[in-house]
Amino acid sequence: MQLGELEKQVLQYFWKGRTADAKSVHSHFEKRRGGTLNTIQSTLDRLYKKGLLRREKQGHAFHYQAAMDRQAFIGKLIEGIGEDYSADPGSTLIAAFSTFSEKLSDKQIEALEKLIEARREADAEQSDQ
Amino acid sequence: MQLGELEKQVLQYFWKGRTADAKSVHSHFEKRRGGTLNTIQSTLDRLYKKGLLRREKQGHAFHYQAAMDRQAFIGKLIEGIGEDYSADPGSTLIAAFSTFSEKLSDKQIEALEKLIEARREADAEQSDQ
DNA sequence: CACAAAACCGAGCGTCAATCGGTTTTTTAC
DNA sequence: GTAAAAAACCGATTGACGCTCGGTTTTGTG
Question: How many interchain CB pairs under 8 A, A with B?
């Protein structure tokens, strides 16, 4: 799922937890980059059709919000990379870890180990039943 | 770094450790998908200009080979995603782990833990000096 | 130097995001 | 209920970029 520059920015805007209609989004982006309301509208529509935004009629306008959070979306993108280049999940993850290794803080490493631990426990649970 | 379909396939061809000239690559891909030698040539050239293939004149033709292996490249792509969506390395990695968690074998989890351990030791080493 | 092989150039096509003018549909206000 | 306003929707244009390939130039070899 490759997004254009404006799409990326709009998505990140919604990841702040906001719900907004085209008008609000437009007034937010107008200052920093210009563009008409129509441009924002078609971008919202594209993101909606791609399943990245949810929307709902509220009075006269659609109110949009993120359909998944940043973490879930990034996970999907990384999954897509694995598929594109025929890498299994394990090696994709190892590639990621190797690349980032030096940049990780102790805290982040701990968080990762906690996830691993949790996953191990889930495994044990499974074999109990 | 978004690649086209042919580019992806050619790159994977080189990840098998091969060194090859345009002619060889073409004869490899001709069966499964057709296309002229010229198409392969321009694809090799594009990949070369993107820094994904290395090349060297050998007699009258360039011999190409992968400039980095699959793991390094996938690492770079994932890094790019983090940049595109303003995610720090730690959260990118956690997103990857969360997404793949259930799909990982025990072996792959162990491999990951070994990497974490290695990274911890590197840290300790550092603080010794 | 001539011939062959490969590199290189350039153009056309398809896809897709960004952009925006114009039209249709929907809401709301009277 | 109808008119005005607001928003959605449609369609066309532009700009990237990958794929494709014909044609020209360069290069290596005998």
Answer: 155
Same domain, A10 and A62: yes
Residues 5-44 of A with CB under 8 A from B: 8, 11-12
Domain with residue B39: its CATH number is 1.10.10.10
> Do residues A48 and B124 touch, judged by C-beta distance below 8 A?
no
Residues of B in Cβ contact (< 8 Å) with A104: 89-90, 93, 119
The range of the structural domain enclosing residue A119 comes to 87-128
Q: Say whether B65 sits in a helix, a strand or coil.
A: strand
**Nucleotide with the nearest C1' to B61 CA:** C6
Q: Examine the fold and report which residue of B36, B66, B96 is the final residue of a domain before the chain moves on.
A: B66
pTM: 0.93
Q: Do the chains contact at A96 and B74, CB–CB below 8 Å?
A: yes
Verify if strand C has an atom below 7 Å from the CB of A61.
no
- Total domain count, chain A: 2
CA atoms of A20 and A65, how far apart (whole Å): 7
Sequence length of chain B is: 129
Per-residue pLDDT tens for A9-51? 999 999 999 999 999 999 999 999 999 999 999 999 999 999 9
pLDDT digit string, tens, across residues B81-103: 999 999 999 999 999 999 999 99
